[in-house]
Design a protein that fits this description.
The chain is of the alpha/beta class and 470 residues long. It has 16 helices and 19 strands. Helix 1 runs parallel beside helix 16, helix 4 packs across helix 8 and helix 10 runs antiparallel to helix 11. The longest helix has 28 residues. The protein is globular, with a radius of gyration of 23 Å. Bound molecules: flavin-adenine dinucleotide (FAD). The site of flavin-adenine dinucleotide has 36 residues, from helix 1, strand 11, strand 14, strand 18 and helix 16.
Length: 470
Amino acid sequence: MKDAVIVGGGLAGLSAAWRLRNWGVTLLESNHRVGGRIRSENRGRYFLNWGGHMFAGGKTATTDLINETQTRSGEIPGSLSAISMNGKLLIDGPVQSYPFRIPMAMKDRVSMVRAGAKVSADVLRYANAVRLRPNESAEMRQQRIYDFENDRTFADYVGELSEDAEAMFRPTITRSAADPDELAAGAGIGYFSLVWNIGQGLNRNISGGASNLVESIAAPLQDDIQLDAKVQEIVHKKDHVVVRYRQDDIDHEIGARTVILATPATVAHKLAVDLQPEKREALAQIVYGPYVSAAFLTNETGPKPWDRAYGIATPKRSFNVVMNQGNIVRGAEAERQPGGSIMTFSPGSLARRLLDLDDEDILETYVSDLDDVLPGFAGIIEEAHVQRWRTGAPYCFPGRGKLQPALTALSGRVFLAGDYLGTLYTETAISSGFTAAQEVANILATARQTRRHHPVQHPNENEPPRHGRG
Ligand SMILES: Cc1cc2nc3c(=O)[nH]c(=O)nc-3n(C[C@H](O)[C@H](O)[C@H](O)COP(=O)(O)OP(=O)(O)OC[C@H]3O[C@@H](n4cnc5c(N)ncnc54)[C@H](O)[C@@H]3O)c2cc1C
């Protein structure tokens, strides 16, 4: 009997496995690699990136994980708020000045400024509402974040916008993987808060690419990780849990005292067949938007106008942002070295337009747009690869706040972890993995004490624990 089976080897499952590394743990991952929505690959001094890449700094679970695993990380160098629109590339300056520096008609400028003033006022209201209060738990604060303006969409909240004003707002909102008419108003306002308080939120990168963090966690756990192991069912028994999975065309069954279920919610609600009905129902209601991303290795020999930018918003393009991954290397070099690495990123409806095209067509569309945004780009491409993420990111839709109590309720031997449990993506994945590991460690420690004191059998050992998120 295993102490714990962890289902899913993304950041949430790996973080849980890391914290439980001194217990008898098996991690089952359906893919041929761990990392889930984290994926980067090394290319000499550069790396290609297709998934999550900006991480939380400061006093966060992410910082703890980075430190504990001795992963090298740094502050993201370069501008996070560049924009390319209507033929103009702006690398820096206050974002509030953009409506006046981007060429656009007066009516668009007026529409933009009017909507900008409304959102600015609500960003302040949001910042106040979500500030951690004395003696408040992280769960209480998370509930308040979900509940902020959670009864209508961002599109309904912001009202009618002119075409250019709408185009300029879109890249920020849609990073969530949702379109303005899908995302809750409060979540949209939260995105502006994140972007306008640049450097306050997700401001760290992993040296050598995000997969280096994944590798640092997984390396010491290698013997406990099973790849290509697709879990099909998780069932509570009287005093343990049975996990059924398929690997190399063979069905397996494994018993465990506890399970941490760290797949996306869309999978979790199907696997955990006997979770509390309200919890299972809440899992089934979580919605993900898609992403398509592409990574380009480039071979330029000298400086480029985009060298100082990390994130360039690109309204009216097939992607909504260009991420200059090469900039991370730029930040550490005394003299501009040849080469670079660029990532494009299409969320929500932009992704839905691309998902079913073949890779060549997606790349052709991307390169044509990239060549406009970064002049001369088509001539410096060394390598290019596409990645489709159908379950790109869970987003906060109107009514999402009401699901949170059921998702985090206490019961059973199956514990949930994953980015859908909060609003901070990689930080939520890691902190939910840590929390689940802590609940499991408590149960395991109690059971071990019980066995020591009552070696034959203690009546309570057969009872499911009364506490724990499951
Ligand atoms: C293009 C892109 C850009 C992003 N950018 C950022 C960013 O800059 N900053 C940020 O914070 N976040 C970002 N994110 C989001 C971030 O990557 C995710 O929030 C985080 O990686 C989710 O981790 P997770 O462990 O919850 O889920 P996942 O990474 O999805 O892990 C779940 C794992 O479960 C496995 N699995 C599924 N079904 C089964 C099964 N039946 N049996 C066994 N295993 C199974 C999957 O294969 C997967 O490995 C981005 C995401 C994408 C796609």
